[in-house]
Amino acid sequence: MAEVNKIGYFSFLIRFTVGFIWLSFWSLACMALMLLALPFRSLRVRIGNLCGKIIGPVIARIIGAKVVNPDAEKLNNSTPAIFVTNHSSALDVFISMGLCPYGGCGVGKKEILRIPFFGQAYWLAGHLLIDRGNNSKAVASMSKLSNFVKTKDLSIWIWPEGTRSVDGKLIAFKKGFVHLALATGLPIVPVVLHGAHKIWPAKTMEFYPGEVRVEVLDSIKTDNWSKENLDKHVEEVRGVMAKALM
What would the pLDDT profile of 201-233 be if each residue is shown by its tens digit? Predict the structure, then answer.
């Protein structure tokens, strides 16, 4: 990564400040709408999707990412489904917010709550926050999400790696998305983000402007999946995504 492409210190401060103001303002605005819709979780999910489409693309652009998505129509026509995407940068979250179709329920780690305003809006939107340190509680939460999604005809957006990859290559997948597929019968739609790790490297606060290409892979049917072949299903999905990233 050429150092000459790195955003300078003062430019970074300006971008960070503007981005935080944009994130905070719209998170608070959407929280007000969500409070009005408090008894209706599926409506709050959709309000959260709207909020994401306002916040995500702008934040990505402020950071310096030009998102190219030739498969937008394919993505939106795939619902309802379980969308699984690779995770190599904090930028992935903002890009995914813009990509996630309406009626898409996110699955993230509980640490998201630490982000001022945004974390609270994410929770209030009815998305699922997983406690990775409490497996039994995480499994129970996944089960409740499955029932909710099936009842309301919603989709799920999940990062199966569970944490960011430092070099952009796929790391081991958690099995939660397979359990969700088994419980809901929804197809898996892999969404591959190319280049996000180069723009905002994992575990840094450095920005390098560039392009992120979105690739939506073919849907994978899950109606013949079984618990006995859990590992096989995990590797099937990981394999097609790893191949796309080569």
Answer: 998 999 999 999 999 999 999 999 999 999 999
Residue at 242: amino acid letter: A
pLDDT of residue 3: 58
Question: Given this model, what pLDDT does residue 130 score?
Answer: 85
Q: Look at the chain and report how many structural domains it folds into.
A: 1
Which helix (H) or strand (E) segment is 81 a member of? none
* Structural domain for 184, as ranges: 3-245
CATH number at residue 142: 3.40.1130
Strand partners, 213: 68, 194
- Structure tokens, 227: 């618990």
Average pLDDT, integer, range 135-141: 81
